[in-house]
Amino acid sequence: MTTLPLRNNEGFLEDAGSWTPEVAQEIAAEDSIQLNENHWEIIEFLREFYKQHEMSPPSNRLFVKAVKEAFGDNKGNSIYLMQLFPGTPAKTACRIAGLPRPTNCL
Q1: Known catalytic residues?
Q2: What digits encode the pLDDT tens for the residues 31-80?
Q3: From CA 106, how far away is CA 104, in angstroms rounded?
Q4: Hey, what's the signal peptide range on this chain (predicted)?
Q5: Which pTM does this prediction carry?
Q6: Which residues contact 39 (CB under 8 A, 6 or more apart)?
Q7: How many helices (H) and strands (E) does the chain have?
Q8: What sign has the CA pseudo-torsion 104, 83, 3, 57?
Q9: Are 55 and 65 in contact (CB under 8 A)?
Q10: Could you write out the DSSP letters of every residue in 37-61?
């Protein structure tokens, strides 16, 4: 078991630089998510998005749209993303990816 870095009250890392794939697996396990290649594809996409834009996708709608532009209709839809990241997909995926909380996610 990995010792998790400091996180806020919603489970987001205080320092995005402390993220590792092992940390992602621990955070995902808290939500009963077993990461597979489909999860990693989205996590890596989000981390790249963050590098380019210096922010997480600000809402679920924009998250779905960005995934759709990158991977097409099969993966860029809310049902697919909800199956991977239950609840609010953008918020759950960003937490696992070690990124800041999306600004408009409840």
Answers
A1: 105
A2: 999 999 999 999 999 999 999 998 888 888 999 999 999 999 999 999 99
A3: 6
A4: none
A5: 0.92
A6: 28, 33, 84, 85, 96
A7: 5, 0
A8: negative
A9: no
A10: HHHHHHHHHHHHHHHHHSS--SSHH
